[in-house]
Amino acid sequence: MSIQKYINKVKGLTDSLAALGEPVPEAKQVRFFLRGLEPEYDSFVTSITNRSDQPSLEEVHSLLMTHENQIEKRNSTNKLNLFQANLAAYDKGFRDISQIRIISP
Fold first, then answer.
1. Cystine design at 18: which of 23, 36, 86, 91 (Cβ 3.0–4.6 Å)?
2. Could you name the domain of life of the organism this protein comes from (predicted)?
3. Would you kindly state where each structural domain of the chain is located, as residue ranges?
4. Coil, strand or helix: which one is 51?
């Protein structure tokens, strides 16, 4: 699930609770939101929970979207570098495709 979909899902849940007369305080929303993130975001969660100030839910969403964009850029750069390395190996004399070993990250 993308981060934007997750944000929308959590927002929908908290909005539903508010509509039922059970609003969730923002600090609890932040904790609930962070606990529900996938393990790949553990470093992000740690950095947010170790802050001396309590970020707003909107700020957490913004920081998380930025974090997700950085991960996507890094992954696309790694794929491009892999492609370039394989292409360079091919250009250096590996004319038989069976001689090329593709290494993925």
1. 23
2. Eukaryota
3. 3-99
4. coil
